[in-house]
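QA checklist item 7 of 12: single-chain prediction sanity check.
[x] sequence parsed
[x] length recorded as 151
[x] structure emitted
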Amino acid sequence: MQHDLTSVPAVPGTVALAEIREAPLSVDEVLASVQDPTCGGITVFVGVVRDHDRGQEVSSLDYTVHPTAADRLREVSEDVAARSGAVRLGALHRAGHLEIGDVAVVVAASAAHRDAAFAACRDLIDTLKAEVPIWKHQQLGDGGTEWVGLP
Protein backbone atom coordinates (compact mmCIF):
# COMPACT_ATOMS: atom_id res chain seq x y z
CA MET A 1 0.00 0.00 0.00
CA GLN A 2 1.57 3.29 -1.17
CA HIS A 3 0.83 6.57 0.60
CA ASP A 4 1.19 9.92 -1.14
CA LEU A 5 3.48 11.85 1.18
CA THR A 6 3.12 15.03 -0.87
CA SER A 7 -0.47 15.46 0.31
CA VAL A 8 -1.55 17.82 3.06
CA PRO A 9 0.12 16.88 6.38
CA ALA A 10 -1.97 15.23 9.08
CA VAL A 11 -3.47 17.26 11.86
CA PRO A 12 -1.21 16.82 14.92
CA GLY A 13 -2.51 14.07 17.15
CA THR A 14 -4.09 11.99 14.37
CA VAL A 15 -4.87 8.34 15.09
CA ALA A 16 -4.22 6.83 11.68
CA LEU A 17 -4.90 3.21 12.60
CA ALA A 18 -6.32 1.46 15.68
CA GLU A 19 -7.64 -2.05 15.09
CA ILE A 20 -7.79 -5.56 16.50
CA ARG A 21 -7.55 -8.35 13.94
CA GLU A 22 -7.67 -12.14 13.74
CA ALA A 23 -5.44 -12.08 10.65
CA PRO A 24 -1.63 -11.74 10.79
CA LEU A 25 -0.43 -8.18 11.32
CA SER A 26 1.67 -6.11 8.92
CA VAL A 27 4.46 -3.98 10.36
CA ASP A 28 4.68 -2.24 6.98
CA GLU A 29 0.98 -1.26 7.16
CA VAL A 30 1.41 0.36 10.57
CA LEU A 31 4.62 2.10 9.50
CA ALA A 32 2.95 3.47 6.35
CA SER A 33 -0.04 4.69 8.37
CA VAL A 34 2.09 7.05 10.48
CA GLN A 35 4.27 8.52 7.73
CA ASP A 36 3.85 12.24 7.31
CA PRO A 37 5.98 14.85 5.50
CA THR A 38 6.25 16.97 8.67
CA CYS A 39 7.80 14.14 10.66
CA GLY A 40 11.48 13.41 10.98
CA GLY A 41 11.08 10.65 13.57
CA ILE A 42 9.10 7.43 13.39
CA THR A 43 9.27 4.80 16.11
CA VAL A 44 7.79 1.32 15.79
CA PHE A 45 7.35 -1.32 18.50
CA VAL A 46 6.65 -4.92 17.49
CA GLY A 47 5.60 -7.44 20.13
CA VAL A 48 6.01 -11.12 19.23
CA VAL A 49 5.02 -14.34 20.98
CA ARG A 50 8.01 -15.70 22.89
CA ASP A 51 8.67 -19.27 24.01
CA HIS A 52 8.65 -18.51 27.74
CA ASP A 53 6.97 -16.34 30.35
CA ARG A 54 7.90 -15.90 34.00
CA GLY A 55 10.21 -18.92 33.99
CA GLN A 56 7.78 -21.28 32.24
CA GLU A 57 7.96 -22.65 28.70
CA VAL A 58 5.15 -21.40 26.44
CA SER A 59 4.09 -23.42 23.37
CA SER A 60 1.40 -21.07 21.98
CA LEU A 61 -1.26 -18.63 23.13
CA ASP A 62 -4.71 -17.29 22.39
CA TYR A 63 -5.84 -13.69 22.77
CA THR A 64 -9.43 -13.21 23.92
CA VAL A 65 -10.86 -9.79 23.22
CA HIS A 66 -13.68 -8.13 25.16
CA PRO A 67 -16.44 -6.71 22.90
CA THR A 68 -15.41 -3.17 23.91
CA ALA A 69 -11.70 -3.68 23.19
CA ALA A 70 -11.66 -2.14 19.71
CA ASP A 71 -13.42 1.00 20.95
CA ARG A 72 -11.10 1.13 23.95
CA LEU A 73 -8.04 0.81 21.71
CA ARG A 74 -9.27 3.80 19.68
CA GLU A 75 -9.89 5.82 22.90
CA VAL A 76 -6.47 4.96 24.32
CA SER A 77 -4.81 5.90 21.03
CA GLU A 78 -6.68 9.23 20.94
CA ASP A 79 -5.69 9.96 24.55
CA VAL A 80 -2.02 9.29 23.82
CA ALA A 81 -2.19 11.37 20.64
CA ALA A 82 -3.67 14.30 22.55
CA ARG A 83 -1.03 14.31 25.26
CA SER A 84 2.10 13.18 23.41
CA GLY A 85 3.03 15.70 20.75
CA ALA A 86 3.01 12.92 18.16
CA VAL A 87 1.68 13.83 14.74
CA ARG A 88 0.35 10.35 13.85
CA LEU A 89 -0.19 7.10 15.79
CA GLY A 90 -0.98 3.60 14.62
CA ALA A 91 -1.79 0.40 16.51
CA LEU A 92 -2.76 -3.14 15.55
CA HIS A 93 -3.32 -6.02 17.99
CA ARG A 94 -3.96 -9.67 17.19
CA ALA A 95 -6.86 -11.75 18.45
CA GLY A 96 -7.21 -15.51 18.38
CA HIS A 97 -4.56 -18.22 18.23
CA LEU A 98 -0.85 -17.34 17.84
CA GLU A 99 2.26 -19.48 17.62
CA ILE A 100 5.78 -18.71 18.86
CA GLY A 101 7.26 -15.92 16.73
CA ASP A 102 3.91 -14.55 15.52
CA VAL A 103 3.45 -10.77 15.67
CA ALA A 104 1.01 -10.00 18.49
CA VAL A 105 1.01 -6.18 18.48
CA VAL A 106 2.45 -3.34 16.43
CA VAL A 107 2.38 0.30 17.50
CA ALA A 108 4.02 3.27 15.82
CA ALA A 109 4.33 6.99 16.36
CA SER A 110 5.61 9.77 14.15
CA ALA A 111 6.63 13.22 15.30
CA ALA A 112 8.73 16.13 14.15
CA HIS A 113 11.65 14.82 16.22
CA ARG A 114 12.74 11.42 17.54
CA ASP A 115 12.32 12.16 21.27
CA ALA A 116 8.58 12.81 20.86
CA ALA A 117 8.20 9.75 18.60
CA PHE A 118 9.95 7.47 21.12
CA ALA A 119 7.91 8.85 24.03
CA ALA A 120 4.58 8.55 22.21
CA CYS A 121 5.31 4.99 21.04
CA ARG A 122 6.24 3.92 24.57
CA ASP A 123 3.17 5.64 26.02
CA LEU A 124 0.93 3.96 23.45
CA ILE A 125 2.14 0.39 24.04
CA ASP A 126 2.20 0.79 27.83
CA THR A 127 -1.28 2.33 27.95
CA LEU A 128 -2.67 -0.24 25.51
CA LYS A 129 -1.35 -3.12 27.64
CA ALA A 130 -2.72 -1.58 30.83
CA GLU A 131 -6.15 -0.43 29.65
CA VAL A 132 -7.39 -2.36 26.59
CA PRO A 133 -9.33 -5.50 27.64
CA ILE A 134 -7.37 -8.19 25.79
CA TRP A 135 -6.44 -11.32 27.73
CA LYS A 136 -3.75 -13.87 26.97
CA HIS A 137 -4.36 -17.60 27.52
CA GLN A 138 -0.98 -19.32 27.32
CA GLN A 139 -0.45 -23.00 26.57
CA LEU A 140 2.52 -24.05 28.64
CA GLY A 141 5.20 -26.55 27.71
CA ASP A 142 4.21 -28.90 30.55
CA GLY A 143 0.65 -29.18 29.18
CA GLY A 144 -0.87 -26.68 31.59
CA THR A 145 -2.44 -23.33 30.76
CA GLU A 146 -2.31 -19.88 32.28
CA TRP A 147 -4.39 -16.70 31.85
CA VAL A 148 -2.47 -13.40 31.83
CA GLY A 149 -3.96 -9.93 32.12
CA LEU A 150 -7.32 -10.80 33.63
CA PRO A 151 -8.91 -8.02 35.70
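[x] summary fact logged: The chain has three helices and nine strands.
[ ] second reviewer sign-off
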